[in-house]
Amino acid sequence: MDINFNKNEDFNKLQLSELKKKLLKVYKGGGDKNIEKHKAKGKLTARERIDYLFDSKNNTIEIGALAGDEMYKDHGGCPSAGVIVKIGYIKGKQCIVVANDATVKAGAWFPITGKKNLRAQEIAIENKLPIIYLVDSAGVYLPMQDEIFPDKEHFGRIFRNNAIMSSMGITQISAIMGSCVAGGAYLPIMSDEAMIVDKTGSIFLAGSYLVKAAIGESIDNETLGGATTHCEISGVTDYKALDDKDALDKIKNIVDKIGDFDKAGFNKVKAKDPLENPEDIFGILPISRSEQYDMHEIIKRIVDNSEIEEYKQDYGKTIICGYARIDGWAVGIIANQRKVVKNAKKEMQFGGVIYSDSADKATRFIANCNQKKIPLIFLQDVTGFMVGSKSEHGGIIKDGAKMVNAVSNSVVPKFTIIIGNSYGAGNYAMCGKAYDPRLIVAWPSARLAVMGGEQAAKVLLQIETASLKKNGEEISPKKEQEILQSIQNRYNAQTSPYYAAARLWTDAVINPLDTRKWISMGIEAANHAPIEKQFNLGIIQV
Fold first, then answer.
1. H or E segment to which residue 83 belongs
2. If you compute the radius of gyration of the chain from its CA atoms, what whole number of angstroms results?
3. DSSP 8-state class, residue 376
4. pLDDT, tens digit, for every residue of 393-426?
5. Which of 75, 66, 70, 192 is nearest to 119 (CA)?
6. CA angle, residues 268, 509, 493, in degrees to nearest 5
7. Which 3 state secondary structure label does DSSP give 332?
8. Mutual orientation of helices 356-372 and 396-409 as an angle, nearest 10°?
9. N vs C: which end of the chain shows fewer Cβ within 10 Å?
10. Residue 452 — pLDDT band, cuts 50, 70, 90?
11. If we measure between CA atoms, which residue out of 441, 419, 422 comes closest to residue 430?
């Protein structure tokens, strides 16, 4: 019996349990009372609509389930950003579905709601994936309109994206299943086809109260913008549905007729399970983010048959590069090695740190994968680039820049899994959110920050104590320790994977055992979009 393995396993499974509890709470949306009110109108909830639409509710991945977590507390919160986004299969065709959750503030758009909708559209655009909108929203949340309405990445960008996707030939289908008001009315009508549910769906630029106030006309909402009006008089909508299920059945029938898509042609063979038990991941990952472990052992539990063809195995050892398969798909893996290694010069190199030789190796491997049309998988547990005079004199900035160049200009799809640390420029070089991974997810063990908590806290302590001393305050050792603890608590909360997921810096916090599924479905989505751009590293310092 390995006591350390068992301790790690207990700790990591407790972290997974915390994730599951958070998700169960989120799945309740606006809470039981609001769900009851919603269903009393004869409507399905947003999650029930998606489950009914998909061939299987299990063969799906959810984007941004934790978006809005612990945010907007003064406004009553916004679970899942008030909108559910899932990738799954309708009549065997992979699609992305966006469904407003009307149990959360009547489906009103908070700032994070807009960001999540734009993320869903970004995924559809990058992967040329059919997108389905299930509309049930009161429109912009007025108390925060200044944070959602006017800017480039705000509410209006949604309709711009509708137009762009239409010009790209990406299928968009909408069902108006509740309120659809003001500017939001353009979203379904800018889709290829729109349907509306009789008696519960309505769509108009201004509701009856605003019409009365603006022009003095008295009219009810159903006559103004209900299903009969728009299917028989205005011609705004294309299909009238009897109820939610009828609308969803119509969507299924339309999707069923869509022709085949042009493929990128990524290599796939019959999938094989890992030979090593994936459950071992919980015992391999150490409790502390500063402890060592061998990343090879994690990789063996993610890839098919536990096989990886390692590239430059004995050079640049703090980054592992190699070819493998995940669920049958050919992939190139770039992973941070988390144990101390020794190079050919007998020099010790810290795990999780990017050195000149490892950056050089990764750059070349990224180029190879682009040459061979192989998707890239980044497994992050990185504390940053090596510092100090030896590294600076050896050109670490130049070598790091080469790697960033390669990641930035890569044309094959990239997928990022944050396993542990994701600090500073290491986050960038290992394909953080700013470098356009098709999907980016974190394990519960992840930490994201500009630097490690201990180092950051000490820097912030120096700044805070200097400021207090400048104002004439005496700082006792006890007071200094209290300030340090306060800073560490605040900083640790901000490095949590849930803090990142709430703000959509990542697409999800996932069970490590679901990693293969996320990567496989992500590559399948990417296969909808043939690569049209030539790989070009750009100008690099050699």
1. strand 83-90
2. 25
3. E
4. 677 888 889 999 999 999 999 999 999 999 988 9
5. 66
6. 150
7. strand
8. 20
9. N
10. low
11. 422
